[in-house]
Design goal:
By secondary structure, the protein is α+β, with helices and mostly antiparallel strands. It is 35% helix and 22% strand. The strands form two sheets. Strands 4-3-2-6-5-1-11-12 form an eight-stranded mixed sheet. A four-stranded antiparallel sheet has the order 7-8-9-10. Helix 2 packs antiparallel against helix 3 and helix 8 packs across helix 9. The protein binds aspartic acid (ASP). Aspartic acid binds next to strand 8.
């Protein structure tokens, strides 16, 4: 699916969720911790690309590192369902071949993004859920954990706050803000954001890939699946156009097929990456009340990181350059 492979300057971009990130609600130390985490993840992804790794290798390495970091709502540090459990979703897509793998509702795979990749490599199916997905991951030799591995005190407090306020299912960072407001103190961390993580990359051989991983929404109904593991909604990569990873109110992203819509606007409408991504984030999503953002890279190495919320944890790094990380507009 990749057009004639030309030497490309490798680039990787990542996100750690979008949302209402008020400067008033984040301390300088918290801000530094987020920048440092994003910086380290970008260096890890850059190293994979520098050593000749594929775009798929790089996005999986970056998302695995984000899953292992408790600051983000994926893997260790994932949010709780209304039942006080964890149900994790992840997807990966290789734009060079349109091969894709995804898992939903898993609770025992340490790194759901690696389970998604195992589904891709297994090759028979694209989306696996629950126990069947876990069995495939175990068979692929992936590290398995007890569900309690994903829990942190901060996320438990967010669940309690969401349930006390009868707020329904809330985006990770919105939950943190509500918690802070209730206490009249600065939030534990970051105000409001959706804490899903994702990565998109272009490798030296011109291949594109995308990966996304999430714990979903705090206080979500057990069994709810968001956009992240749905190919075309929260995750998409096509070597002819772009690789895209989304974060936000998943139901809205599903309804507009957000990630694929970016690629479709480029393919059918001839739009450049930034115009296509802006149309989705600033027109299509707001039209149905959808909040969030996305990261995308095209086959020329253009990167855009649009969001319609106050902020989005994000960053990018090109080969041979220093990482750049951002939180606010
Ligand atoms: N999109 C994710 C979901 O709805 C949430 C997020 O981005 O934080 O599951």
């Amino acid at each position: 699916m990749t057009p004639t492979a030309t030497a490309a300057v490798p680039v990787i971009a990542i996100h750690g969720g979008a949302g209402t990130l008020s400067r008033a609600h984040i301390s300088p130390e918290q801000e530094r911790a987020y920048h440092a985490a994003l910086h380290a993840v970008l260096l890890a992804g850059q190293a994979v690309l520098a050593h000749g790794g594929s775009a798929l290798d790089a996005v999986c390495a970056a998302v695995q590192a984000l899953e292992d970091c408790p600051l983000f709502n994926a893997g260790h540090g994932a949010v709780f369902t209304a039942d006080g459990t964890h149900e994790l979703d992840a997807a990966v897509m290789d734009g060079a071949t349109l091969a894709a793998g995804a898992v939903a509702g898993v609770a025992r795979v340490r790194n759901p993004v690696l389970a998604a990749r195992a589904v891709l490599q297994h090759g028979q199916h694209v989306l696996m859920v629950g126990e069947g997905a876990e069995r495939l991951a175990r068979g692929a030799g992936l590290a398995m954990v007890e569900p309690g591995y994903f829990s942190t005190d901060a996320r438990r407090a967010q669940l309690q706050a969401a349930q006390a306020s009868a707020a329904g299912a809330v985006l990770d960072h919105d939950g943190a803000a509500a918690l802070a407001a209730g206490r009249g103190t600065p939030p534990l961390h970051e105000g409001r954001k959706m804490g899903t993580v994702g990565a998109v990359a272009l490798d030296a051989q011109g291949r594109l890939a995308a990966a996304t991983s999430t714990g979903g929404l705090t206080n979500k109904r057990p069994g709810r699946v968001g956009d992240s593991p749905l190919i075309g909604a929260g995750t998409y990569a096509d070597g002819r156009t772009a690789a895209v990873s989304c974060t936000g109110h998943g139901e809205s992203f599903i309804r507009v097929a957000a990630a694929h819509d970016v690629c479709a606007r480029m393919a059918y409408g001839g739009l450049p990456l930034a115009a296509a991504a802006d149309a989705v984030v600033h027109d299509a999503l707001p039209a149905i009340g959808g909040s969030g953002g996305l990261i995308a890279v095209d086959r020329h190495g253009n990167v855009c990181l649009p969001f319609n919320t106050e902020g989005m944890y994000r960053g990018l790094v090109r080969a041979g350059q220093a990482p750049e990380t951002f939180i606010y507009r």
